[in-house]
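Run: sequence + fe (iii) ion -> complex structure.
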Amino acid sequence: MSSTLITGIGELVTCDASLGDESLLGVLHDAALVIDDGRVAWVGPAAQAPAADEHVDAAGRAVIPGFVDSHTHLVFAGDRAAEFAARMGGEPYTGGGIMTTVAATRAASDEQLRAGCAARFAEATASGTTTIEIKSGYGLDVATERRILEVAREFTPETTFLGAHVVPAEFADDRAAYVDLVCGEMLAACAPLSRWIDVFCDTGAFSAEETRTVLSAGVGAGLLPRLHGNQLGHGPGAQIAAEFEAASVDHCTHLTDDDITALADAGVVATLLPGAEFSTGSEYPDARRLLDAGVTVALATDCNPGSAYITSMPLIIALAVREMHLTPAQALYAATCGGAKALRRDDIGHLAPGARADLVLLDAPSHEHLAYRPGSPLVRQVWLGGLPALQQQ
Ligand code: NIG
Ligand code: FE
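>> structure
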C-alpha cells in the first residue's frame, strides 16, 4: 500500500493528550499526518513533514479521528414514523413498539435486511463514522436473531447478541422459557457471530435476575458483557454492569449517586445516546455529573427505528453540546476515544502514530463547527484503514 501525506491541516485533533497542545483533544495546528500501511505513521508540524508517495492538501481544514459509533441496531425492517409522530404529539415512549419492528424483521428476506443495513451504513460513513457496533434484537427467535447477526457481520466485527431485548408476545405467559431459549439454543446459534452480549435491563424489559442469568450465559459462551440500562427508570442496570465489569452501560438517563460511584470504581463506560432523548421527547442524561465523578463517557447514535432513527454522529455531538452541556471538545472525545473505550479498542478513536488510519477531513477549520453548524454536511473526506472511503466534491 502506498503512503499518503496530508499537509495544510489547520487543526489536527489526535485525541492523545501527550501530543500537540496536551489538551484532552491533543490538538496540533498547521500540522501534517502520514498514513502508511493502513496506520498513522507520523504526525507533527507541517514544516517537518517527511515525504510520502501521495499528497493531499487539507488547505487549512480540520482533521479528526473517525467517529466510533459504539451502539446501533442497524439491521431491521419496517417503519415507525407514525409512532414518532404520535410521540411528538405527547405520547410517551415505552419500548412497546419494538414488537412492530420484530414482526417486520421476521418477515423480511436476508436481501431486504442487507439492503436496509447497507443504506444506513453508507449514511453513517458519509457522516464520518469509521467503526460501528451493530446489535441483534429485532428477531427474538433463533433463526431471525442469527440472520440479523449474519448480516451485521458483513459490516463490522463489533457485533452484539441482544436476544434479551424484550420478551416476544409468544412467550408473554412464560418469561422463564424465553430466558432459557436465549441462554440455550439462541445463544449457541448467535455466539459464533458475536463479540458482545447485551440485555435491555429496564422497566418493561428484563429484571435484575433475568439480566444476570443472560449475561452469565453469554460470558460463559465467550462473549463480553455490555448493557442497556437506566433508560426508562431507576433500574439495576448500572449496578449489574459494574458487577460484571461490563465494557459499557448504555442510556444512563436515571442514575443515583451510588450508581455513578459503582461505574467509576468498576471502570464501566457510560454511553449516552442523546438521539434517543431527542426522538422520544425524554429528559437527557446528566453528562456533566458523570464526567465530574470520573466516569468515561461515550456518545453513540443508538440508530434504531423506534427511539432514534439517526445515523449521524455530528448530530449526536451537537445534541450533546446543546442539550447535555458538554464542551465541543468533550463531545468529540466521547464520540471517538470514548466510543473506542466502550468497545475496549485501543487501535481506534485517536490519531497517534500506530493507530488505525481512520480519519475524517472536515470542511471546516475546527472541530467546534460540528456543534456550531448542525445539519451541514461537514464531512469532506474519510479514510478507513488508510484507504479513501468517501470523497465529497
Ligand atoms: O436502545 N432501549 C431499548 N432498545 C432500543 C429501542 C428499541 C425500539 O424502540 O425499537 C434503544 O433505544
Ligand atoms: Fe439501543
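>> summary
The pocket of fe (iii) ion (ligand 2) is lined by residues 71, 73, 228, 302, 304 (CB under 6 Å). The longest helix spans residues 110-126.
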